[in-house]
């Protein structure tokens, strides 16, 4: 099953947890950290997360979470077929999880990711400086919590 992913940057995590808990019918979060909270709901099917990770408040990025490598490959093939700019990341740590993912940017500049979570992680993930050092293009990450900068997102091979 694919699940919509929405990540919202917030100013006050506790107030936001109270608000979204009420919004989601008092559903308990799947993950709660000092700077991050995530719900994995089935109705509606959404991975909804909030954090205080440096971005200005509002929608940080949107994505689609998949369960299998095959689903991830299918999603990435859609990007390639549409000739969208893509940055692939494998085994990356972000949002207290290790994942394989691909990033693109929509025409409005909104960061979109497709990802498969491999396992939980004890840390939030790479800082922007660490991500910059690890990036093959050696470029800074964008405003999205773990997204590479738009300038790092390159056209996938059309082979």
UniProtKB/TrEMBL annotation:
Q: Which SUPFAM superfamilies match?
A: Glyoxalase/Bleomycin resistance protein/Dihydroxybiphenyl dioxygenase
Query: Which residue range or ranges hold the VOC domain?
Result: 2-117
Q: Name one GO biological process term.
A: response to cadmium ion
Source organism superkingdom: Bacteria
Q: Which InterPro entries match?
A: ArsI/CadI-like (IPR049789), Cadmium-induced_rsp (IPR052393), Glyas_Bleomycin-R_OHBP_Dase (IPR029068), Glyas_Fos-R_dOase_dom (IPR004360), VOC_core (IPR037523)
Any matching Pfam family: Glyoxalase
UniProt name for this protein: Glyoxalase
């Amino acid at each position: 099953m694919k699940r919509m992913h929405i990540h919202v940057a917030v100013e006050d995590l506790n107030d936001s947890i109270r608000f979204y808990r009420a919004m989601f019918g008092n559903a308990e979060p799947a993950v709660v950290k000092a700077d991050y909270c995530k719900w994995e709901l089935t109705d509606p099917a959404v991975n909804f997360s909030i954090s205080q990770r440096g971005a200005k408040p509002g929608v940080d990025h949107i994505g689609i979470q998949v369960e299998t490598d095959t689903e991830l490959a299918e999603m990435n093939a859609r990007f390639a077929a549409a000739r969208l700019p893509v940055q692939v990341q494998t085994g990356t740590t972000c949002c207290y999880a290790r994942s394989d993912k691909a990033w693109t940017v929509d025409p409005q500049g909104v960061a979109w990711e497709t990802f498969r979570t491999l396992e939980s992680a004890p840390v939030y993930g790479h800082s922007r400086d660490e991500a910059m050092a690890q990036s093959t293009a050696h470029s800074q990450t964008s405003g999205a919590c773990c997204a590479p900068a738009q300038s790092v997102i390159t056209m996938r091979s059309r082979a």
